[in-house]
Amino acid sequence: MTLEDRVAELETRQAFQDDSLQALNDVIFAQQQELERLKAQVQALASRQAELLGQLGGEELGEEPPPPHY
Fold first, then answer.
1. Exposure winner among 3, 28, 65, 69, fewest CB in 10 A?
2. What sign does the dihedral 6-11-15-17 (CA atoms) show?
3. Whole-model pTM?
4. Using alpha carbons only, what angle is made at residue 48 by residues 45 and 49, rounded to the nearest 5 degrees?
5. CA-based max dimension of the chain
6. Distance between CA atoms of 64 and 67, rounded to whole angstroms?
7. Element (H, E) at 50
8. What is the pLDDT of residues 24-63, one digit of tens each?
9. CA distance 1 to 7
């Protein structure tokens, strides 16, 4: 194997690795965006639940104090 062949092989491998890294970065970026969207959705649901509990009076939904014998 000549020096030129070895250099060509290394350049090919580097190009493949560059493409792989870019694809992985794209996936990570998309997952981060999805994670942020899901976090916002969970926060909105938690706020909505707190609002509904406030409207209904939280005690009616199972938040009763323990019985006196405890």
1. 69
2. positive
3. 0.64
4. 85
5. 89
6. 9
7. helix 3-56
8. 999 999 999 999 999 999 999 999 999 998 888 755 555 6
9. 10
Q: Are 53 and 61 in contact (CB under 8 A)?
A: yes
Give me the count of residues in the chain.
70
Which amino acid appears at position 6 of this protein? R
H or E element at residue 65: none
CA 32 to each of CA 17, 19, 45: distance values in angstroms, whole numbers, following the listed order: 22, 20, 20
Distance CA 60, CA 57 (A): 6
Rounded CA-CA distance 59/44 in Å is 22
